[in-house]
Amino acid sequence: MNYTSTRGDPTPRRFCEILLEGLAPDGGLYLPAHYPQIGDATLTRWRGLSYADLAFEILSLYIDDIPAADLKALAAKTYTAAVYGSEAIVPVRQLQAGDHPLYIQALSNGPTLAFKDMAMQLLGNLFEYELARRGETLNILGATSGDTGSAAEYAMRGKQGVRVFMLSPEGRMSPFQQAQMFSLQDANIHNIAVQGVFDDCQDIVKAVSNDLDFKRRYKIGTVNSINWARLLAQVVYYFAGYFQVTERNDQPVSFAVPSGNFGNVCAGHVARCMGLPIAQLVVATNENDVLDEFFRTGRYRVRASSETFETSSPSMDISKASNFERFVFDLLDRDGARVADLFGPGLARDGGFQLTPAEFERIAGFGFVSGKSSHADRLATIRSTWQAHQDMIDTHTADGLKVAREHLQPGLPMIVLETALPAKFAATIEEALGRQPLRPAALVGIEALPKRFTVMPVDAAQVKAFVARHCAA
Q1: How many contiguous H segments (helices) and E segments (strands) does the chain have?
Q2: What is the pTM (predicted TM-score) of this model?
Q3: Would you say residue 222 lies in a domain?
C-alpha cells in the first residue's frame, strides 16, 4: 500500500515511512492511495474475532512493510483486557431500545481515561518497534487540547529511542488533565504550556514540521491525529461497535462523534469508505462550531484565537480542524492542487473557504450531518442521562449524545462514541449532579502531585530552540 499527500506530492511512500514522518513535505496529510473494500464474506469472518485480531486484520490491509507475525504481535500486545478492563476492549451499552435504539460505545477505559488511548497505545508500540528495527531515535512534537497529550505521554514514557515534546494551551485544560501530563517525571517527557489556545499550539507543530531542515536534523515526528497511524487505529473501533449492535451485515447504523480536530470522525469516514454500513456520521461540536457551520452551509471559516471559546468540553475548543483536510481531499475527488490552495494560501488569505453548490451537495453522499451543544445542553444531558439510566457521562460525550438525539431515525441504531470518563471533568459533573464523579484509585489525588512543565509564548522559534537544547543534552 502506497500513501499520497492531500496536497498532491506524487512521491509514493510506504507505511513505516509516514509513521515516522507525520506531515508530508508539501504540508499535506497522508492518506492511502485507495481504501480497501470490505465485502460481506469478510464482515462475516470478522464478526467473531477478538478486538486484537480484528485490529490486526484491518491494520494489515494498510501495512505491508511490517511482517504479518510482528504486526499481529503488536496488536496483541496493545489490546488486552489488563489495559482496557474488559475482553471487549470497547464495550457497547444500550441507553434506549424500541424504535430509536441508542447506544454508548466505551472508548475510555485505557490508562488515561480517554479515547485517545485506543490509538496512542498502538502508536507507542509501533514507534518502538520501527525505531529499534532501524537503530534510530525520534523526537515527537505534539499539541493537545486535553487528552492527546496525556495519552501520548503515557504511551511513550520509558519507550526506547523516543522523546516527547507536548504543547498545550496554558490554563485551558481541566485540573485533572493538567495533572495527568505535568506530574510525569520521566526524563523523555517534556511539557510546554503555550500562552495561547490550542490552535496556536497546533500551528507551532505544523510550522516546525514544515521546516524540513530542522525536522530532518532533529528527527521530528508527530503523534497528533495528523499522523495516519493514529487515525488508522481508530478505524478499528467503528467495526467493533458495529458488530456489537447488529446481527447481520446488511444492517446500517449511525455514529455520533464529539468532534474538535476531526480525527475521530474521520476514522469513521474511512470505515464507511471501506464498506462498513454506516448510514450517518453525526458531527457534534460545542460552542466552537466551525465544523457544524461547514456541514450546514459549506463554509469553512477558521476562528481567531480571540473567537475561540473556553468551554466545559475543553478538548473540543478547536477552531481549525487539522484532520478536516483529509475529508475535503476525498470530497473534491482527491484534487491535490485544489486542496493545497484551499488549506495553504487560500486559508491564510481568506481565513477559510466556501464550497461551490455542486460540491456542497456531495457531502450528503458521504453521510455527514452535524449539530452543536452548549454548556446548558451539557448540564441537561448529563443530568437526564444519570436520572434515567444511572449512567454518568463526561462533558464531551454529553455533546455527542445531545446532537445524536436530534438525528435519531426509526429502526436505525445510533452509537455515541464516549470520548472520556467523567472523572476528568469533575467541576462540571458536580455542577450537573451535585456530586463528584468516581475515579480509579490510582488517580486519586493526582492534582496534588509535583508538576514539571515550561511556559512559553506563542513562538515556534522558541519551541525549536527548546527542542534542540534538550536533544543536545
Answers
A1: 21, 15
A2: 0.91
A3: no
